[in-house]
Amino acid sequence: MKKRIIFFTTMAFFSCGVSSSQAALHYAGEYAIATGAKNNGIEPYGLSAITWDKKNNIYYAINDSRNNELEGEASLYKISMKLSEKGISDVKFLEQHPLLDTVGQHFPKETVDGEGLALTPDGRSLLWSSELGAPLRLSDKNGMMKKEFTSLFPAHFNVTGGKESPTGVRSNLSWESVTFVPGGQALFMAVEGTLKQDGELAGPLNSGSSRILKFSSDSSGQPLERLHEYVYITDPVPKVTEFGINDNGVSDMLALNDHQLLVIERSGRNVSAGFNDWDFDVRVYLAETSAATDIGHIESLRDYKERSKIQPVSKKLMINFSDYTEQPDCIEGITFGPDINGHKTLLFVTDNNQQPYQKTKFYLFIDADDELGRLMQK
Q1: Are strands 125-130 and 331-340 parallel, antiparallel or unpaired?
Q2: Structural domains for the chain
Q3: Which residue intervals of 129-178 are DSSP H helices?
Q4: pLDDT surpasses 50 at 121
Q5: Most-buried pick from 34, 68, 152, 287 (CB within 10 A)?
Q6: Sheet with 314-320, side-by-side order of all strands
Q7: How many of the other CB atoms lie within 10 Å of CB of 162?
Q8: Model confidence over 325-364: pLDDT tens digits?
Q9: Three-state SS at 302
Q10: Is the pLDDT at 3 greater than 60, yes or no?
Q11: Which of 255, 252, 315, 317 is nearest to 283 (CA)?
């Protein structure tokens, strides 16, 4: 989600037990590109998701621009970089392509807002989520759309209902992530914030919620049907200021197996008057869905009479970015990278929101004790 000026009210929702872990993930460092700077003649902006093409050892990233005059062109980027135990180096933006519809035209403004991105298991296409227009689209690796999947989404998400609808996803707080399970037989998606009819958004005194969807998929990575739906409880807003916006929600996920995911919770807040200065808290949780209640039949969690019997997704803290960097930025994307000395790696990317005080950043973690590697074998 690009940070845009919105005002929220809050109330209590669910409580959820959270276990913590000092996971053996080694922080190897970060790489930053200043807002407005060009890399190989390309200016990166608004990066909201990233995915790794293992075969070609390149990364695809998507921005959340809405094809309007302020935010610029909705784009797909191809990036190369070198990862090592010493950190990230030799970052090079190779190509930038506009996101196009099925006839090769730019999407009309305010009908696209790319937020999640995953390379299909066959390596031929990209599946991406959007907060405007179709919530899930399939494109080729140069950004031209092949197909969209709006019909797969249940009515209670009201994906075509618009801002004034009393139910469904909230404006600018919807489809933030898409990730395939290893092997590609299924994929997960999540909304950033609480559905309108489910309760209130996260606040300083209450948690919020996200709904996580699981779809089956075919050999080419196209989603086929909804399998499960779960509630994931987001943390309360950890810090607040007097300047208007204080939030917390899911900004991306990465599947480790068919029932466990890494979930990014990203909290942002104004630290001065106006839309000109932000601080962020970012945490990454290991989410476990195997014991969670399937809530696909429940239209409204707030009105559900047996709400106390719903088991949310459990979660365990894996990374608190404040432990590794003095000023975590607006982290919106996560992907695996190539192994380093036989250990899995995690790569994160930030959305600079096209603001001069922010940067496009990449963060690298190495799975030094192979905890993620073991989970991926389950």
Answers
A1: unpaired
A2: 24-375 (2.115.10)
A3: none
A4: yes
A5: 287
A6: 18-20, 314-320, 278-288, 260-270, 246-255
A7: 9
A8: 988 999 999 999 999 999 999 999 999 999 998 999 999 9
A9: coil
A10: no
A11: 317
Q: Is 225 exposed, middle or buried (0-12, 13-18, 19+ CB in 10 A)?
A: exposed
Mean pLDDT of 50-66: 98
C-alpha span between 161 and 179 (Å, rounded)? 25
What percentage of the chain carries pLDDT values higher than 70? 93
Closest CA to 329 of 88, 36, 32: 32
Calpha distance 132→95 (Å, rounded): 24
What is the DSSP code string of 75-90? EEEEEEEEEETTEEEE
Question: Exposed e or buried b for every residue in 271-309, given b needs 16+ CB within 10 A?
Answer: eeeeeeebebbbbbbbbebeebbebbebbebeeeeebee
- State residue 2's pLDDT score: 65
Q: State the burial class of residue 126 (Cβ atoms within 10 Å of its Cβ: 0-12, 13-18, 19+).
A: buried
Q: Is residue 250 within 8 Å of 192, Cβ to Cβ?
A: yes
CA atoms of 272 and 290, how far apart (whole Å): 43
Query: In 3-state terms, what secondary structure has residue 152?
Result: helix
Separation between Cα atoms, residue 3 and residue 1, nearest integer Å? 6
Please give the average per-residue pLDDT across 104-132, as a whole number: 97
Query: Which pTM value belongs to this model?
Result: 0.94
pLDDT at 11 over 80: no
CA nearest neighbour of 265 among 325, 358, 192: 192
Average pLDDT value for residue range 79-105: 98
Phi and psi at residue 213, to the nearest 5°: -105, 140
User: What is the tens place of the pLDDT at every residue in 200-234?
Assistant: 999 999 999 999 999 999 999 999 999 999 999 99
CB 347 within 8 Å of CB 367: no
- 168-to-62, 161, 164, 298 alpha-carbon distances in Å: 25, 8, 10, 12
